[in-house]
Design brief:
The protein is mainly α and 428 residues long. The chain has one domain (2-427). Helix content is 74%, strand content 2%. It has a two-stranded antiparallel ribbon with strand order 1-2. Helix 1 (2-30) crosses helix 9 (176-208) and helix 4 packs across helix 16. The longest helix has 33 residues, at 176-208.
Length: 428
């Protein structure tokens, strides 16, 4: 239980840091008319594809957008596009309202909708990359980036992403069901730990009336200094100096730890399709002892390159990205983040945290109930088709019901308090 608590706290800190990045990206895009125009121009090919299908001339649709020869079930229909917008909207509402990354629900949602796991991962990574490029805020944070840290970290991240992408593709080539089973198992473990921690934290906070044991920046986790000092005391050359502007003479750490950290982040990003941002912040602050200010800049820097490299070199060139879904999710998430962020001004924090625990656990239940069917297809266990169907339906319905209730509640709260929220905006 202690491991679950520590790892859950670790993941929660990263999820919050990544959510702050997503919200800043969303605000950057929404506040720039040129970026919004570019976003809507990206939708034109999708509209053309919808018209082609309605006119029964779907052969003109490029395979990269979801033509009939693309990886099943990537065949484009207007329904698939609108479903992707709703999935992005749900993730955006969670990110904006709760302040913790909603990207954890995207891959489970896509897989529940019938998208193969490897296609869901590749598409999610590309969606993150597209969002990072469109709303890049790197120029605002360049002063906080330690170039030596970033370069060494990216060396590891590229190697890790290559390994993770290769494993996903290899498993898919051996057996698509094996690939789905592997990705599902990873999500069961990650969402189970994060969901258990989120629920425990919510129940404790409701009982005691106290907040988190770390702030939204994640800088006050117990034991950070001790672990970081131990790692920084290991003098394996070459050593790298950082945080010179904050500490006289700066801090020093062995390059090997930066490369290994980057490798872990890149590997997880390529396996799960979550960009890696949810791991970078806690690793830098909690494990390596890098200041929050330097970490934020380096995290933004690495997300652009890690997500870009992973999505393009490990998935796009092999046909494992469904661009129509990616653009739909990008559009939905941007609007969802804006609505969710406004709702936080009129809702109690304890209520928001309860909903987050429910959302993460819904994703866990979804993948946990899908796993027996995958194992049965692999002939690892024996289950009847009826049992598999019942389990799948329980997982799918429980997931989408919880996410739908949350989305309806957030949007309803937004509409109900729209006059109040306008007043808040005027004051700001």
């Amino acid at each position: 239980m202690k491991f679950i608590t520590q790892w859950g706290r670790f993941m929660m800190m990263g999820a919050r840091a990544h959510a702050k990045w997503e919200m800043e990206i969303s605000n950057t895009i929404f506040n720039d008319k040129k970026r919004m125009i570019i976003l809507f121009l990206l939708i034109i090919p999708i509209i053309v594809g919808g018209v082609a299908i309605a006119s029964d001339v779907s052969g003109i649709i490029p395979e990269s957008l979801g033509g009939k020869k693309a990886y099943s079930p990537a065949y484009f229909t207007p329904g698939i596009f609108f479903a992707s917008i709703l999935i992005g909207l749900g993730a955006g509402l969670i990110t904006g309202c709760i302040g913790a990354g909603g990207g954890f629900i995207i891959a489970p949602a896509l897989m529940s909708a019938g998208i193969k796991g490897i296609l869901a991962v590749g598409t999610d990574l590309f969606h993150i990359f597209a969002k990072a490029i469109m709303g890049s805020v790197m120029h605002k944070k360049l002063g906080n980036i330690s170039v030596p840290l970033a370069v060494l970290f990216l060396i590891g991240a590229i190697a890790g992403a290559t390994g993770g992408g290769t494993i996903n593709r290899l498993l898919y080539e051996i057996n698509p069901v094996l690939s789905d089973t592997f990705i599902t198992t990873v999500y069961v473990l990650m969402l189970g730990i994060l969901g258990t921690y989120a629920l425990t934290d919510f129940l404790k906070s409701r009982k005691s009336g106290e907040g988190d044991d770390f702030d939204s920046g994640g800088s006050k986790v117990a034991g950070v200094g001790g672990l970081a000092r131990k790692i920084q005391s290991i003098k394996i050359p070459p050593m790298v100096t950082f945080d010179q502007g904050l500490v006289p003479g700066g801090r020093r750490i062995s390059s090997i730890f930066l490369i290994l950290s980057g490798g872990l982040v890149g590997f997880c990003a390529a396996i799960m399709g979550v960009g890696g941002g949810f791991l970078t912040f806690p690793i830098f602050v909690y494990v390596l002892g890098v200041s929050s200010m330097t970490t934020v800049g380096t995290d933004i820097f690495q997300i652009v390159f890690t997500a870009g490299y992973s999505s393009i070199s490990q998935y796009a060139v092999y046909g494992f990205i469904f661009y129509t879904l990616a653009i739909g999710m990008l559009l939905g998430s941007l609007f969802g983040i804006q609505i969710g962020a406004l709702v936080t001004k009129v809702v109690k924090e304890i209520t928001i945290r309860g909903f987050y625990a429910m959302a993460v656990l819904a994703g866990f239940v979804n993948r946990a109930f899908a796993l027996p069917g995958k194992l049965s297809e692999m002939e690892i266990i024996s289950l009847s088709k009826r049992t598999i169907m019942i389990l799948d339906q329980i997982g799918i319905w429980s997931f989408f019901i919880v996410i739908s209730i949350f989305a309806i509640w957030v949007i309803g709260t937004f509409l109900k308090n729209i006059k109040v929220l306008r007043g808040v905006e005027v004051e700001l």
